[in-house]
Specification:
Elements lengths: L5 E2 L8 E3 L11 E5 L3 E5 L5 E3 L3 E4 L15 H4 L2 E6 L4 E6 L4
Antiparallel strand pairs: 1-2, 2-6, 3-4, 5-6, 7-8
Keywords: Hydrolase, Protease
Protein name: Aspartyl protease family protein
Organism: Camellia lanceoleosa
């Protein structure tokens, strides 16, 4: 995102950039890596929220590094989330709701 100038935060989104209307944005590739070296590639629709003059990363910071992290709905909306309650595991698949 170095090609964009920083903009003032919007609500809880503290990493925002100035963009020109109708600009095609270069969106970074972002993955989340979980225990067991499980990598979940985040769809571009779960990376930025865009208005007419700003684009903000849809990730928010915790106030304390020991706080629980939240894997938000913006990142999950194109994933199938599978719960193995008996096995105590959770998995992700691509091609969920969009």
């Amino acid at each position: 995102m170095t090609q964009y100038r920083m903009a003032k935060p919007v609500s809880v989104f503290d990493t925002c950039y100035r963009v020109k209307k109708n600009t095609t944005l270069k969106i970074p590739s972002i993955s989340l890596v979980f225990g067991g070296n499980i990598e979940v590639v985040i769809d571009s629709s779960g990376i930025l929220i865009v208005s007419s003059s700003k684009a903000c990363l849809v990730f928010t910071a915790n106030s304390n590094s020991s706080d629980v992290g939240i894997f938000r709905n913006a990142q999950q909306k194109t994933l199938d989330v599978v719960y193995d309650v008996a096995g105590g595991k959770q998995g992700f698949g691509y091609g969920g709701c969009s």
